[in-house]
């Protein structure tokens, strides 16, 4: 009953596996920031997960700081959301073990993200294989209800639901069954038309600027329809990005120009470049300001980590009690 009275709890994370891009923003961060007003929000930097692909310690810690700066500059409010590093809550690794004991191997064998990553040459480590179990632990340890993500993560949330149900069936109703939440930019295409992804090398970074940004936008792959011919905006990568950064009216206008013919992809790319500049320009200034305040950023993460850890430890008391493990000495006191 107490569970029903609780506000909805949102939980999501982003891997520090490279610089964040428009796919991360429009699929995930934008809704994370909007939802901090609507319930209890827990957002974390998934540095344990990033270890499946990043094995350079300096790159991992630099990318962790970069993700923190990105979130804060884009509007995450640490007074509203609990914002923390995954590794500051080591209890998730313990819960991942517990969940792996009620999870059939066949469930993980069906994970498409694992297959995609291995096909792209990423080492098929146990960490990569068990990634969905750690993700389930992240979601369940905060007893979250809603997980705002991009489309590529939907299968992982479905697997989380299966794991939560398997645990509850074996040991009693400890975990709420979480749901995923998609935003308008649930599948943002990259420069080559595939899903924009850090590891595909096809990204436009959120905080890219100047000639680097221009070069990327101008390199977006389009078809060979001649300038004067009508074009289908729904099949164009440039338009798919434009509609995310432009108003509805502006997107409608560009779509009409595509259909009428006489608008080339070069013009559409220039219009997109202008909109990206205008959309993210103000955030860039804030990010530069925050980058000069590392102690503030560290303080936000440390405080968020302490709040998240207290929640996680409370859940682990329930879990340990349910499965027949003794309570941790420190947890037993509380
Ligand atoms: N192209 C995308 N469109 C919409 N949403 C996306 N997300 C990622 N790419 C797109 C969403 O961003 C959140 C954080 O993702 P992540 O960094 O934890 O892992 P990912 O989904 O695997 O993102 P990348 O860029 O593809 O990273 P790598 O290459 O390291 O695996 C998630 O909610 C994701 O859905």
Please explain how this structure is put together.
The protein is mainly alpha-helical. Helices cover 57% and strands 7% of the residues. The chain is built from 16 helices and 5 strands. It has helices at residues 2-5, 22-35, 47-50, 57-74, 91-100, 105-109, 112-119, 126-129, 131-141, 154-171, 210-218, 237-245, 248-260, 265-291, 294-323, 329-333, and strands spanning 9-14, 40-45, 81-85, 146-148, 179-181. It has a 3-stranded parallel sheet with strand order 1-2-3. Helix 2 (22-35) links the parallel strand 1 and strand 2. It is globular and about 75 Å long. The two termini are 23 Å apart. The structure holds adenosine-5'-tetraphosphate. Residues 14-15, 17, 23-24, 27-28, 46, 53, 149-150, 152-153, 185-188, 195-199 line the site of adenosine-5'-tetraphosphate.
Give a quick summary of the entry:
The protein has 16 helices and five strands. It has helices at 2-5, 22-35, 47-50, 57-74, 91-100, 105-109, 112-119, 126-129, 131-141, 154-171, 210-218, 237-245, 248-260, 265-291, 294-323, 329-333; strands spanning 9-14, 40-45, 81-85, 146-148, 179-181. The strands form two sheets. A three-stranded parallel β-sheet has the order 1-2-3. The protein has a two-stranded parallel ribbon with strand order 4-5.
Shape: globular
Q: SSE order, as H and E?
A: HEHEHHEHHHHHEHEHHHHHH
Poorly predicted segments = none
The strand order across the widest sheet is 1-2-3
Main sheet attributes: strand count, strand direction, barrel closure: 3 strands, parallel
Overall pLDDT level: 95
Rg, Cα atoms, Å: 21 Å
**End-to-end CA span:** 23 Å
Beta content comes to 5-15%
Work out the number of β strands.
5
